[in-house]
Structure formats: structure tokens, C-alpha cells
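agent> Task received from the user: take the single chain below, predict its 3D structure, and emit C-alpha cells. No templates, no multimer pairing.
agent> Plan: (1) validate residues, (2) run structure prediction, (3) serialize to C-alpha cells, (4) report one or two observations.
agent> Step 1 OK, no nonstandard residues flagged.
tool_call: predict_structure(input=
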Amino acid sequence: MPFQDRPYHRSRPLAQAIRAALFCLPLATLVAAPAAMAQSAVSEQSVRSYEIPAGPLSSALSRFAGEAGVMLSVDGSLLEGRQSGGLSGQYGVDEGFDALLQGSGLQAVRNAQGTYSLAPRAEQASTVELKPMVVEGFALGNALGEVEGYNATHSSVATKTSMPLVETSQTVSVVTRQQIEDQGSRSIAQAVRYTPGLMSSPYGATTRYDYVAMRGINDGSVDNLYLDGQKLLGDSGTYSSLQVDPYFVERIDILKGPSSVLYGRSLPGGLVAMTTKKPQYETRRQLQLSYGSNDYKQVAFDLTGPLEDERIAYRLVGVAKDADNQVDGIEEKRYAVMPSLSIDFTEDTRLTLLAMLQHDPESGYHGGLPAVGSVSSFNGQRISRSFFEGEEEHEQFERDQQMIGYQFEHRFNDVVSARQNFQYLDSRVESEQVYQYGYTTNGLPGDLYREYTGADEALHAWSIDNQLQFLFDTGALSHTLVTGLDYQRRKTKVSYDGGYVSSVNPYTGARPTASYSFYHQYDESRKLEQTGLYVQDLIGLGNWRFSLGARQDWVDVSFDHVDDATYGSHKDEAKLEQFTGRIGVLYAFENGVSPYVSYSESFNPNTSSAYNLTANGWDISLLDPTEGEQIEAGIKYQPLGTDDLYTISFFDLKQSNLSSKDSSEYFFRSVGEITSKGVEFEARVSPMENLNVLASYTYMDVEYSKDYVGRPGINNRGNTPNAVARNMASLWADYTFAQGPLAGLQIGGGARYFGKSWVDAENTLRIPSYTLYDAMLGYDLSRVGLQGVGVRLNLNNLTDEKYVAACNSLSQCYYGEARNVMATLTYDF
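)
tool_result: status=success, residues=829
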């Protein structure tokens, strides 16, 4: 029986995962109860120190509720246009609300469960009509919810608790839902392309995976993606890496630098954390139709609202798309649905059930071309962007992925709250590909040497994260203490075929009938298991903010490599214990300026194998885990009374034991060390009403600080890795006309610059710099009587620049996306 049809892959992991989830569900409560009782002596109205600047009353209240750790019901009509003078000093919860609401005619009312709501003062209650209330708070405040416009004020990605961005001692960028839509992003990688320090197209125009290289660290994997606070547990050593459709995503938080203290194994460049759309307690419905270049067709819907029992809300989001590709003969297809349900058992307890089902019958192009013929000309010619080096009869990438999970949160009192997140992932990939690997040496000039690979993979993974949060004071110090215990388990089974295919000439246009020679390559079972225990204390002392974190991980990785006619059968297992830490210091001046400095660490065990030829034959063993460390210093500035944010950061990052391969090898080895030093600048501002501006600049000096291990005759020390530019910059602006004959019209445009980069690690050939221009035009048709209807036109690579985005080696270079035009019709009802 083929391994993919064995009962284990169909039922046993899911059953084990569900049993484990049911077992762990009460864990947070069981652990928290003694802690809650231990804190019973702490007054629920304990006095804490607050430094909240003047500005919109809604922002001040949201920040106060998040820092105080209380739930707040917000009536939108009461806050429109209201300002706050801020809050500075020592306050209890009630006193803090009173001070913030002084002169507003509003009061904060506390019910028996400890939840606060805003209401007019008694003398004004009869004159105010209330809108439906929206609950904000729990332990994470507004750090994970919807954001109006482009500028988020809080994020939880760096601390796992609601934290103002201006007071976070690490670089964090947030891409909001509106930015994703306005820029016409068709993938997560496209959505983050205006973020500093990122290279979101290291494999060119491919849309099969969301590659994001951060701060010069590009290991060719997608191992830095997170979904709803948990690692997206694909296997970066195989084809089983999962992808989330951008229509399912509410916001994307990008954390720069090592982050193992809270997340365990991770890449040192940073991480990309996606937050999916969650159920809302206000009925909303959206239907979206898109059509664009390469016969791109997409239908999407988003339905949410309360059920008959108003404590329960649902959301159902779906996408179906079908498109050709700029490369001849390639298609993309997707059918995906994401249902979710939120249940408010009490005002302090919420359970959100999540699921995602996705079928990708075709997943687009994922190939490359030689540097000679793409970066530089070959006999005066360049290969067309539409040239397909493979064979249609052996071009397949079919992916099925499912996710189920839940998010549980409970607030015991003003001091203690608990959260538990669970996620189970299942993926099946069947693929075939004929790919080129440079020019032949004995064929006709210009002929490409080609090989074949086929894969049949099954992945099952689950993870659970238990968190306890404590809010308390010790003397003049205010503490937000987060403790956690998380666990993740992943198992992948793969079966690979290889082969050789007759050559093809990319310049003549002729495609003779291909001849094939196939063989079975090997089967392999790969496992990873990780348990992590972490603690973090966020301390406030007046205007000072301190962040202290520590974590201990226990990791077990193994593989069982069989049926390999060339290298034989091998097994290996590695048990790893790793300690990581983080420390940050920030000072929040009264004028909105916050300088900071931080140090953080990361590690990432490898499930990839190193092949070494010994006197006894081939030895296959697991690569060493990568390790990273970074020192970062910066300044953040949020002008008082605004949500604008300016950030400049300086970083010194080092990664050791990075797995890689060069143009002369097929297999991964270890790179001794890479260092990355640089500066990033980002501005997310609204200089006037209805105008949004995003600006960024990045300078990086990245080099191999140690040479390849075991590579005689090759010295890469001091060289710059491929797909890394010394200079990057971007600018985006959009404006919506609110009055006059153009009312309802939205116009936007942007430019992205990527400097020169190297084709290979040996630094033998440079890729020229390139600048890409994007544009957007939208109109709100409700202005002409079509209520809820809007249209938008997006143009990416407006000038149709033909460019190579990046290369992996002299034989593998990747053209960037050609000009793409997309029209979208949206109906909200």
C-alpha cells in the first residue's frame, strides 16, 4: 500500500491532535486558578503608572484599557471627533477613566463581571442615541483586530500582549487590510512589498509560496510565516509549505530580528505574522469580483454577523480563482473557504473556532533560467519572459491543505488572564516538474540541460500555545508578565522521483519532442517535535519601558531515508536543548519620541540533510541548527494627537550554520556565518485628511563572515549573499476626494527601488538595480446611487520593466512580474 494511502495519514494524527487539544483545553484554567487565588489580595483597582499622550479620545481609551488589562465596550457615536488631554501619573482603573473622560460628558460604567462600558452621564443620557456596541479588550486589546486606514497603533507580535508600537523596543511594521486592498495584493508576499528591510520576490514572479527574505537572511524557505500567533508548520525541506490567501487576512504584523524567546525555533531576520478575519458582532456582507492580466478571474465573498443568540457570531470567507501566467502554458487555480465561529460564554470568556480548507489544482510557475540570457545577453539575445523551459505533460503542482483550530481566552480578574491557541494542519502535495540547470557543454549552442523531479508528500502538524498574563505593580514598577508553555509536532512523508530530459533551446522557438529517463530517487520520513517554556516581563517605571524575556526549548528532529539506490538508506536523530533570551530598554518622552535599544536571540533546528562522501561511502546526517543574535537601536516618533509613526532602526545581526547550496552542488551544506548590518527607516503618516503616505529606506551591508564549511578551493568570505541589495527604498501615497465633483474618487501610486545584487555567492556577476511603479484608481459608486458598490483598478509594474528580480546561482535566475492590470468590483451589503 502506498504510504499516502495508509490509515495513519487519514485519521490517526487528527485523532491524536483532537485528543491532545481536549486534554490541553483546561490547562490554562487549571494552572491559572492557583495563580489567581495567590493574587486575590491584589486589589482589582490597583494603582498603576500611565503615560498616555493627548490625542483622539478613542485612541487614548483603547490604550488605557489595553495597559490596564480591562475590557471596554465602545460606543462609536459617542467618540466621534472627541479629543483627550492624555493621562500621566498613578491611577486606579476607575480614576483613570474619570480623568480621560473629564469634560466629555461621558462616564465609564463597571458591571458585576468587571467589564467597562461607556455611557452618557445621567444628565445627558436622554439626548444621545446609542449605536451597537463593539467589545474591545481581553488581554490583547486592539492589537489583533480590525484597523481603519493604514496606521495601526498597537501590535502583539513582539510581546504576545497588546503593546503600543511606539513603546515596543523592536522594529514592527503592520500592513492593514485597507493597504492590502488598495495596493491590489494577490499574495502575502506582494502585500509586504512596501515594508523596509524585506525582499519579497527572491524567486521572481512566482506565486506558489510566500517567500519573504528579511534583513539579508534568505535561506530559500518560507519558515518565517505565522498564522494567528502560531508558526505555520510547513516543512521547509520539502515542497509542503502552506500558503494563505490574502483575502482571508485582516492584517500582517512584521517583526524584525530574532524572536525565539516567544516563538521558539525561528529565523533571525524576523517573522511575518498573519491575522485572519474573525467573526464580528455586526452584520456585514461583501461580494468581490476581479478580472485582470493573464485572464485572471477571481470571485470572493465575506459574510459575518451575530446569530440568533447574540453571544455567538460567525464568519464565512471564500475565494475561487483561475488564471493563466506570464510564462506560456502555466495556470493558477484555487478554491478555498474559511469558516469561523466566536462564542462569548461570558463577558470575560471567549472561544473562537477556526477552519480553513484549500484546494490548489494548479499553483503557477516556479522555475528559473540561466544568468547568461536573462541577466546578461547570450549572443546578443535574451530569453523571453514567457519562455517555458519545462514540459506541459510533466508540469504539475497540486496542493490540498486544511487547518482547524481554536483561540480560547479568559480573564479571571484585573490581574490574571489566560489564553490558549491550538492549530492542526494537514497538507498533501503532488508535483512534477522539468527544470533547466544551465547550458549543455556538448549540445548545440544555447541548449539547456534539463532534469526531472516528481514528488508525493503528506504533512501533518499541530501546535498548542498556553499563556498566562499577570498585571501587577511592585512599588513604582508596573508589570505585564506573560508566561507560556507551547508544543508543536510535525511529521512529513515524502517520495521522490528523478530523471533526465532532452535539452531545449530557448532562443530558436523550436520545441522538439522531449525524451525522458525517469527513476525512483528515495523515500523519507521526517519528524520534528518541540516543547518550549517561556517567560517575559514588560516593566514600566515612569517613562521607562523594560522588556525581559527568557525561554528554554527541547527539540527532537529525525529522518528515516530509505530506498535510495545512489546514497543508500540512512537514519539520524538529534536532540537539542536551547536557551534564548531577549532584553529591551525604551524611554518614552512626553513629546512622542521614544529611543530604544534591544538584544535578541534565535535558533532553528534543521530537518534538511547534509551529504558527505567518506571512505565508507555516503554519510547523510542532519545539519546543525542555525543560531542568530542581534543588537538593535532605534528611535520611534508618534506626533501627539496622531496615529502617525516614524521609525528609524540600526541593527547588527549575525547568523551561523545557515544551510545553503551553491551552483556546483545538489545538496545542502552549512555556511559558517553571515553578518548583516544596516539601517531601516519607515514613515506611515496621514499628513492631511484622506491622504495616506508610506515611505521607507533600507541600507544593508551583508557578507559571509566565515567561508563555506568543507569547500576546498572556494573562498566566499567577505562576499555578499545573493538576493541582497545594499539599498532599497519605497514610496506609496493615496488620496480620497471627499467633496466637490470628484467626491468618491481615490487615486494612489507608488515606486519600489531595489539596488544591485549578486547572482551567486562567489560574486562573479551583478544583477542591475531596478525601479518599479504601481498605480491605483478607485471610485465609490454610492456617489451615483449604487449603494455599497465600489470599483478599483490596480496597475503593478506600470512601465512594464523587464528585470531579473534575483538569482540563486549562475544557473537559476528569476524574472520579475511583468505589467499586471487588475480590475475589482466590490459590493458591500
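agent> Step 4: summary for the user.
Residues 260 and 602 are 5 Å apart (CA to CA).
agent> Done.
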